[in-house]
Design goal:
Helix content: 25-40%
Distance between the termini: 28 Å
Mean pLDDT: 88
Number of domains: 2
CATH topology of the largest domain: Cytochrome Bc1 Complex, Chain D, domain 2
CATH superfamily of the largest domain: Cytochrome c-like domain
Largest sheet: 3 strands, mixed
Shape: globular
Strand order of the largest sheet: 6-5-7
CATH class of the largest domain: Mainly Alpha
Strand content: 5-15%
Number of helices: 10
Radius of gyration: 19 Å
Length: 263
Amino acid sequence: MKRARGLGGNVATTLGIALELFGLATAAQADGPALRRSGTEFMSPALQTLQRDDAQNPAQLWVKDGEALWARTEPGGPACASCHADGSQRGMAARHPAWDDRLGRPVTLADRIDQCRQRHQGLPPQGPDGAELLSLAAYLAQASRGQPMAPASDARLLPWRARGERLWQQRMGQLNLACRHCHDQHAGARLGGATIPQAHPTGYPSYRLEWQTLGSLPRRLRGCLVGVRAEPFASGADEWLALELFLAQRAAGMLLEGPALRP
């Protein structure tokens, strides 16, 4: 990624100007959240109620589609349910990203679904925000709802997580901000009229009101980079995967809520 220049001046001045531009609170918190809180806790009571009621949460439309896709036999291969025993869906979302021996690299849950569909069902790749992929990811997220995030302890993932942590700490874009400046130091403050969450990936894929549709974690991360006026990484770049691995480790033990609703 091409890193844009900062706003000029020393670090304190640059950060101060950027925070003022965004309307953030001026009192900085300790670096790193003292108490981890899911994005649900930063929403209004009305939105919390909407998320918790499956009859009203629009993400459930994708869950239903995913359930049908899971059971559907494709022209090029068997249904997902034919290979995966009933009940095996529970926990899949909690364990990803994970190492893939065949590819020799980590994969996200969306990657795993996409690869499986290509190899065993003869379907074309879709990417994390493909319509059917989002539906299947929503169905598997719901199957793991209430389980703690359990990122793998595989040593081969450590360099990827370390890279993700460096990206989390790295200043980017014309606003010269790192992820930690908003989501660690200023979580709970206001940004453009919205409350800044701690950025734990416990609810993805999520139905975001600003999108009016379901979307993936990579889509949300792209939005953050655009927000600090940085050039996003290329689609499918290793940086996205490294960030997902770090975020999953950062949220280890927190309960999955997906598919969630977010502002």
